[in-house]
Amino acid sequence: MAAPRAEVIPKPIQQDWVNREYIEVITVSIKKITDFLNSFDLSCRSKLAVLNEKLTTLERKIDYLEACVTKGETLT
Q1: pTM summary value
Q2: Which long-range contacts (CB under 8 A, 24 or more apart) does 14-20 make?
């Protein structure tokens, strides 16, 4: 009777380890995805900030040119 009982105990323990390994794989995968998304977010924010600065500079130049053109029209 001791032999069959010894076989019953390892199966749940083995299944428990399989479940834990599966959960660990999922956890590591979620962490990798999260790290990627955080890195992507930071990269996008940085690039958008640079783009915003360039657009602001262009808008100021356009405003200046419009003012010059308007001023020139009223003088002539």
Answers
A1: 0.60
A2: none
